Amino acid sequence: MVTVVTKLVNCFHLSRRCGQYTMNQEITKVKEKPPFDRSSSQDSVDELPMEDYWTEVDNIKKSRENRQEEQEVVVVKEPDEGELEEEWLKEAGFSILFGESAEDPQESMTFLSTLTRMQAAAVQKRVEMVYQTLRKKNKQHQIPDVRNIFAQRRESKEKAPDGTESQSVRTNENKYQGKDDQACSLVAGEKELIPPVPEEAPASETDVITLEVSFAEQAVNQKESSKDRTQKNKGYDTLLPNFRLPKEKTGTTKIGDLAPQDMKKVCSFALIELTAFCDVVGVELKKQKAVKFKTKDSGVFGVPLTVLLEQDQRKVPGTRIPLIFQKLISRIEEGGLETEGLLRIPGAALRIKSLCQELEAKFYEGTFNWESVKQHDAASLLKRFIRELPQPLLSVEYLTAFQAVQNLPTKEQQLQALNLLVILLPDANRDTLKALLEFLQRVIDNKEKNKMTVMNVAMVMAPNLFMCHTFSLKFSEQQEFAMAAGTANIMNLLIKYQELLWTIPKFLVNQVRRLNTAYLKKDKKMRKKLLKKMAYDREKYEKQEKSTNDADVPQGVIRVQAPHLSKVSMAIQLTEKLKASDVLARFLSQESGIAQTLKKGEVFLYEVGGNIGERCLDDDTYMKDLYQLNPNAEWVIKSKPS
Fold it and tell me: What is the pTM assigned to this prediction?
């Protein structure tokens, strides 16, 4: 532990008792202020009344009153001192520090070597906090509180003779935590209740969001460049910026494009990056921990997503989205997405209750009569399904983190945080959320007739995703409004920018490549040592290895394998303009028989091995650029796993 501490650098302080409300915390009391008119405000998106939001909240409350049985509330455990940091380190890939991993300690050091400056700081901070907690518990004499220790360090930096900070990774906790005008909390009593949102560029302008550079590093640079500038608190923009994804020559990587082992590494890097990013921008990140309680192990409503998928996969192998969820969306679409007030107008409460009971009894038997379900009924059932999940669709662990995104100072930073949070969601939650957002976008595409703009839909759906597990808590009207405006804004961003949010940032993919390369080098060294000990001719081995790598492919040519097509292999000359779509087209143009019916979108070109496990390439990937990035890869055409 001490060795790791000395090799890392300082990071921000993650408080064990943050200011954000949690499901079992008492809400901080606030000073008396004039009551809000919750129907409208300068902070409402689109500058429109938020009547849809409050109407939906009232509908939800009425539906709960009509239920005889009470839904069990998810209880969030308040972590013990040091527990939060210990769990964080384990999830980030450092279980070895706690004796829970059989891997070589050198593996952790290899992983650390691939971290950015701010990511390394995030890890260092948690190691030190856990280390201090262990010392405090095991020693008789009093150990100074870690927060005081870092306060002393900050003071010493401030009193430095030259007035400058160390050029190594800086601890930003004093600079940004609780003192930055851009940072605020969901809880009353900490600055303003309604999160400030600075002035943004006009929506007519198109901005490219940068995915090549760490978000935390970008935030540091923005902080430095904006020290002398003041930003106006304009509230939520009427029109959101038109952010677009940059065109990457080595290809854009979407969630689902990587092999599971690489996606696991992406998640570790994403957790560390999110934590470092939140430190820089001054927003507290506190991962929640749900207390386990008994849930239904069968049925339709109120059943955990994982349990639903287990029973669904017995009927439809490989399904990744609950069948009832798919069927409800299908039923809504059968009625036409041009229906005015779709999603906003509720079905009759008694009829919804009766339909729920029928679905519980007949859905899996296949005897339920879907013709009896009206379109507005199906929409109400869909929202009820989301609300009654035992744990939120956005997960217990990260629900408050999603809510805290509203506190970030710019829309770009809000999107960066949401991008990392989406990556961190469990697979079942992420897949179901994606299906929901795609459906909501189809509803919005018909806004001219159904009168449901992106903001209307966001206001209707936000209470169902964010507030369903907090109805038992008491909030002031100010707090209610702050959460309403904030969560509607986050829902808006999730819908509008879903393509961007399901993209894995290039800097994370590059970190995985560096980590894989480091592991490969380590394995190669071990192999050579073993060969040397066994008295093999090292020179002979290296020549043999080189000839194997070169195979019989000339310089500037790649061999593409297609084991499931009639043309199983083809040598292709690399050119500056050759794209992945061109490679696929050459293979498909030579197909015959049954294989000739294959269409674009049914098979994909994969990059396999080298510094990546496996990666599905998008059509616009320039093959020569990717080959230069990963010269030891193999190239395979195949279909995506279901």
Answer: 0.79
